[in-house]
Design a protein that fits this description.
2 copies of one chain form a homodimer. Chain A contains 13 helices and 18 strands. Chain A is an alpha/beta fold. The first copy, chain A, has 3 domains: about 160 residues, 3-Layer(aba) Sandwich (Rossmann fold); about 160 residues, 2-Layer Sandwich (Dihydrodipicolinate Reductase, domain 2); about 55 residues, no CATH class. In chain A, strands 7, 9, 10, 11, 12, 13, 15, 16, 17 and 18 form a 10-stranded mixed beta sheet that branches. Chain A has a 6-stranded parallel beta sheet with strand order 3-2-1-4-5-6, sandwiched between helices. In chain A, strand 12 and strand 13 form a beta hairpin. The relative contact order of chain A is 0.13. At the A-B interface, helix 2, helix 6, strand 13 and helix 12 of A face helix 2, helix 6, strand 13 and helix 12 of B.
Chain lengths: ~400, ~400
């Protein structure tokens, strides 16, 4: 019998409790032993709840109980999630987490604490929800040379962009729909401004290159600037607009990291990743292009990814033989200049006369849209000098 | 330092040797120790080859060398690949394999021998080439209830079908192209008759349900019967034709297993898996629909998957804590009746008058094509009774 504690009885934490209960038999068969949730930690009151007898408010009860060997941190936000996690690791307990904010902000500290205490810190559910992506990158691709990662990492923005493209809905109306369906929060900034996607691409870059960069050093453009006209032009170009988190190793050994909307042509598999689904393309020198696709969010799918981490931890518990991941914290000195990266651009300007060498996409409402050759951001500035620019979107590179 | 032997110095074996050499530094960093290929076993002569000093003809040299802890079986075919593998496992050596024929025919025997001898038998490269699919199913999805697996598992047939759909090439011409490009063998039967895809879906079904069924019990239809007219009708229907390996657990607890061409609508992510790429959709109760996409074949991509297995084995070597997989051999008694499975059908008949309730797709050359409601194969027989049928293709269900 393995005993665990769930910290945070919200959406994902509740889903995990439910899943451990409903899959009891499969889990037992898979693990060769039973998995029991001994405590659920939450500061809120759950009087009358059927699991009230398991709910405690004080995390120290978990910390001081030697029977608890696995802690599932499902709180969200940086604090106290980080503090509880590091305390649990130092107490010799394995920690699994769905908290991308904590992994992106403190991943290197938590992994080091895990290694020192001979326990595991796993976070499959922090990126791509139900999609197994962290484990394949950590295990299957660890001896390959990762060339780039490109991901549709945020389901809310992908839903909004899909509505804009398919139904030519405006950003504002699509956002309202997403909020009504529970896909977007009342304050949608973390999603639509790209903050959530940025944390996730930082985690994937750390898995690819061993260095975790602070989110605030990463060029992060959200989707508020994407208009109905951009969407209809994308359809004309046989492309879709996706919010893409991108990382790659540049020729001089630096890491290029950015989050921005991109025109994705139909020949790229990410093109058809629609609605709230996520898709992550990993290009390795040996394996070529891989794509991982699935539900990027949701109570039970995300809880399923957390459960997979718990199962891994339990299977390897007797030997504590989980491959140690070591990250270092990166700074500006090893980050590439995003503006110098080359790609083709879609642009729109006021008036009829487009810059030389560009290919017109459409002319409407006194504005002309066109696509450029493959150029860098400095060359684009020169090209557009003197024009009144209303839109600029990178093509998928 | 970990020492290994590569058995079979052909396409994949040669790729593995190359990859271990070219990724020496990444592997060393990842493993914390060096990986050395001590022997390459092949019965052919390689006089003058730069690696001649490592090449031996007698497998017993490997078997009797206690320094060799990992054996990579890259021979292909059932024998002597199975015999060498079981001997190595019994000698306490880990075995990794890219050989789907051996895994499908003897998987349960090899896994049992591995468990008895406290070593691992891993076979990531046997399905989906470079795509990490075996490991995610074995680890990330092991505590979920797998509802179904649907895969485009053979790159050669997918290339041929893509040519037929996109360029309206005939089957014969597309096959010739595939042979010229090296995608298809001179005798293409294993690919175009669905035998290769059948072995792979049997392996995936075993991972999902713990039972490995003999290939000859599985309904296996290849793509020789798919015509240009079928392909152009698919395009009219907004679908593509794909050779799909399918398995699911039916309501009465049996396993439904089949390989056949299917009309795949654009709303299904497998629709856009083109050319030699593979795509595998796994539906789990908790995780929902996942898709894994990548190169299903090729020297270096496949060798990359083998290398990932070797790395896993080496990382867990000291503890031999690899999760033991246990399969049993299945028989007809637990296999569902494929004909009773319900789906919609695309059909074509001689003449103009289509059965009542069907929807016409097109009328040309004295033949009429149409789609049916969701029915089972027995009801289809009744529906088509008295008509001269020229084509029958299941829709993706």
């Amino acid at each position: 019998m393995v005993k665990m504690a769930v910290i945070g009885f919200g959406n994902i934490g509740g889903g995990l409790v439910e899943l451990v209960e409903s899959n009891r038999e499969i889990i037992k068969k898979d693990l060769g032993t039973e998995l029991e949730i001994k405590y659920i930690v939450d500061i809120r009151d759950f009087t009358g709840h059927p699991l009230e007898h398991k709910i405690v408010k004080d995390f120290n009860i978990v910390l001081n109980d030697p029977e608890v060997s696995v802690v599932a941190e499902m709180i969200g936000g940086s604090h106290p999630a980080f503090d509880f996690s590091i305390a649990a690791l130092k107490a010799g307990k394995h920690v699994v987490s769905s908290n991308k904010e904590v992994v992106a902000n403190f991943g290197e500290v938590l992994l080091a604490a895990a290694a020192e205490n001979n326990v595991a810190y796993l976070f499959e559910a922090s990126v791509g929800g139900a999609i197994p992506i962290i484990r394949p990158m950590r295990e299957s691709l660890s001896s390959d040379n990762i060339l780039s990662v490109n991901g549709i990492l945020n389901g809310t923005t992908n839903y909004i962009l899909t509505q804009m493209l398919v139904n030519n809905t405006s950003f504002e109306d699509a956002l309202k729909q997403a909020q009504q369906l529970g896909y977007a929060e009342a304050n949608p900034s973390a999603d639509v401004d790209g903050i959530d996607a940025c944390r996730k691409i930082c985690i994937l870059a750390a898995l690819a290159y061993g260095t975790v960069y602070p989110s605030d050093l990463v060029l992060t453009e959200g989707i508020r600037g994407v208009s109905k006209r951009d969407a209809s032009d994308a359809a004309r170009l046989g492309a879709s607009i996706k919010l893409i988190g991108h990382c790659e190793k540049t020729e001089d050994g630096k890491v290029l990291l950015c989050v921005c909307p991109r025109m994705v042509p139909a020949s790229v598999p990410l093109y058809s990743v629609s609605d709230v689904f996520n898709g992550i393309m990993v290009s390795g020198e040996a394996v070529g292009d891989l794509m991982f696709y699935g539900r990027g969010a949701g109570r039970i799918p995300t809880a399923g990814a957390v459960l997979a981490d718990i199962v891994e931890v339990v299977k390897h518990m007797s030997s504590a033989q989980l491959p140690p991941a070591k990250w270092v914290r990166g700074d500006e000195s090893t980050l590439a200049d995003v503006k110098a990266a080359k790609c083709a651009y879609y642009c729109r300007i006021e008036g009829e006369k487009i810059p030389d060498g560009c290919v017109m996409v459409s002319y409407e409402d006194g504005q002309t849209s066109f696509s450029t050759d493959v150029i860098d951001g400095y060359a684009l500035d020169t090209l557009l000098d003197g024009y009144a620019v209303t839109s600029k979107i990178r093509f998928f590179a």
